[in-house]
Amino acid sequence: MEGPGEVGFGGEESCKRCQSSAQVHRQWANQGPGAVARRGRQLRSRKDGCGRPSGAARYPRQVTASTVLLTQTGSWPLGVTLVGLNSETGLKLLYSAALMAGVIVLRLVALALIRRLVGGEVADPRRFWIRQGVQVVAAIVIVLGLLSIWVTPHTDVTTGVGLITAGLAFALQQVILSLAAYFVILRGDTFGVGDRITLGGVRGDVVRLGFLKTTIMEMGQPPAVSGADPAIWVHSRQYTGRIVTVTNGAIFREPVYNYTLDFPYLWEEMALPIEYDADRDRVERILLSAAREHAVVDDPAAERALAHMRSRYAMSDASLEPAVFWRLTDNWLELSLRFLVPARGVREIKDRISRDILAGLDAAGIGLASATYDIVGLPSIEVRERAA
Question: Is 167 exposed, middle or buried (0-12, 13-18, 19+ CB in 10 A)?
């Protein structure tokens, strides 16, 4: 009964009674193509130690110099090479392509099921986190699958890994930085889809968060900062219509301002100059009345959000009630109205407050102060009549 065979050059097989082995065949191969051809002719003309026809007789495949060169080096004669491609490499490439195609198809199917089962808008936190989970799982499966296909127990990957790591570290610095920032954003609760932030000098709502970049729907800036570059023509917190892409690595270089993460409210202020001889107490009552009418006052949701902030951060006490503060200047008395508003819809609230304040001041006969200048002297003027 034959033992397990081992195919060598010339198609020979080894068994318990045969003295040939793979080492003998390698020695013949190392002697060159001519020696291998002679070895093949000898094997076809004799029988092995078991009295059976030799492997070359059973497998009449002729061993040629081209076969030996292709087997040893993966290249053909005359210096023609297949760039390391052989049957094993081709099979691995086929497996890799099948793996990536399968993962991509499964990912698309999973995202379609998420949209159907979860529903909601794109900014829905449940839909966002499930989508991110699918993306991460797909990336992990692809990486582990490719490693399983290309890295075997007999593969020496030390040199390759070193070269690849050095190349990636040099050429893909920003990509690696943005990818690391993506996990920092998720793990550190920096921001998420739907949050209103300022990142990389761009203020707006996050509409998409990817592995490398964050997409923001830009909104306007207050007049004090609207002259920044690039220019902003909307002078309030409303959309400009521009979609801005910022790399995730910006979180490591600049501060991130989040308007809605833990406390979706803002403290706003409006400053009004009035004359010193005006009825200041009545002006203050007008301001407070307008703020209590339109701002956030006695709102249980705002109080819970503030309590959450206090439990999570070491912040001092803050008042949610409207207040008026006075400041003396050279020309007028400045009254600053401070009030609480939601993070969205600030412009509409300030518009209604401004209308009520102007109506109250007109009813009281009180005007707003403006800058005045005293003319302390005039230059002499000489008028001459021109002769006809």
Answer: exposed
Identity of the highest mean pLDDT range in 86-90, 254-258, 379-383: 254-258
Structural domain total, the chain: 2
What is the domain range of residue 299?
A: 265-364
Q: Which two tokens stand for residue 131?
A: 């989508």
Mean pLDDT of 171-188: 85
User: Given this model, what pLDDT does residue 12 score?
Assistant: 43
Residue 114 falls inside a structural domain: no
Q: Residue 69: is its pLDDT beyond 60?
A: no
What span, in angstroms and rounded, lies between the C-alpha atoms of 323 and 76? 87
Task: State the Cα angle at 132 between 115 and 247, rounded to 5°.
Answer: 120
Residue whose C-alpha is closest to residue 360's, from 295, 305, 303, 283: 283
Domain's final residue, options 55, 73, 91: 73
Q: What are the tokens at 72?
A: 């040893």
pLDDT at 220 (0 to 100)? 82
pLDDT for 250: 92
Order across the sheet with 333-342: list the strands. 265-274, 333-342, 323-328
- Report CA torsion sign: 27, 28, 33, 34: positive
Q: d(Cα 70, Cα 33) in Å, to the nearest integer? A: 11
Highest mean pLDDT: which of 52-56, 304-308, 378-382? Answer: 304-308
Confidence of residue 2 (pLDDT cuts 50, 70, 90): very low
Last residue of a domain, one of 73, 89, 111: 73
Percent of the chain with pLDDT over 90: 29
Q: Is residue 178 part of a domain?
A: no
In a domain, 375, yes or no: no
Q: At what angle do helices 22-30 and 33-44 cross, to 10 degrees?
A: 130
CATH number, domain with residue 357: 3.30.70.100
305 Cβ neighbours under 8 A, 6+ residues apart? 262, 263, 264, 265
pLDDT at position 116: 80
Torsion of CA 351, 354, 356, 361, to 10 degrees: -160
Would residue 315 count as lying in a domain? yes
Residue type for 251, please? I
- Three-state DSSP at 335 gives strand
pLDDT reading at 337 higher than 90: yes
Q: What is the CA 82 to chain-centroid distance, rounded?
A: 39
